[in-house]
Amino acid sequence: MFLYWLFAYFLGNMMTGFLVVRLIGNDDIRKQGSGNVGARNAGRILGKKGFILTFLGDALKGALIVLIAKYFGFADEILLVGIALAILGHIKPILLGFQGGKGISTFIGGIITFEPLLIPIIIAGFLVIYLFIKSFTFAGLGSFVLIPITLYFLHYSNISCIITIGILIILYFAHRENIKERLSKHERKS
């Protein structure tokens, strides 16, 4: 179990955006755009191709963590901690001086591989919230609130739901600057 969690963190350290921009753009993603190594910044630098390759690569990390845990028959709680550690590895990668991404792609890949029934819930939540707020960031982060609620109604353990809430707190903390920026823009418009 400890080795699985260690592996999850270091798999999270494998930054797709860093590799994609290095291989295609022959540059360091951390020195361009926002300096973030995630899909959004890779998209700014390389266009749609950079965004899609980075998103898929980072989502695959989350999916692999789930598939490995299921292969070894680990409990859901151990698996969810694995997803959390992969996200932490993505946000604070020791291999890149703790300068990582925001963890959304890794989370999405992991959570929908863990429970595919969450896909329509996340999409529906995103669309409804986006209709009212017109912000991809808030719609995406807002739709994630439905995940632990859905897991509860799908009869996952209370501990699994609590771990999922903990993962969301990590993601929201990683996005705190984006959230503050969006809120201040909204206040200025009001």
Cα distance spanning the termini: 51 Å
Biggest pleated-sheet summary? none
Radius of gyration based on Cα positions: 16 Å
Note the beta-strand portion: under 5%
Number of self-contained structural domains: 1
Q: Outline, from the CA principal axes?
A: globular
Structural category is mainly alpha
- Give unreliable regions as ranges: none
Q: For the residues shown, what is the average pLDDT? A: 92
**Total number of helices:** 11
Provide the succession of SSEs. HHHHHHHHHHH
Percentage of residues in helical conformation: over 70%
Classify the oligomer. Answer: single chain
Count of extended strands: 0
How is this structure best described in words?
The protein is globular and about 45 Å long. The termini are far apart. Helix content is 75%, strand content 0%. Helix 1 (2-12) runs parallel beside helix 5, helix 5 (76-91) packs antiparallel against helix 6 and helix 7 runs antiparallel to helix 9. The protein has 190 residues and is an all-alpha fold. It has one domain. The chain has 11 helices and no strands.
What's the arrangement of secondary structure elements?
Layout: H1 2-12, H2 16-25, H3 39-46, H4 48-71, H5 76-91, H6 104-114, H7 118-133, H8 136-143, H9 146-153, H10 158-174, H11 176-189
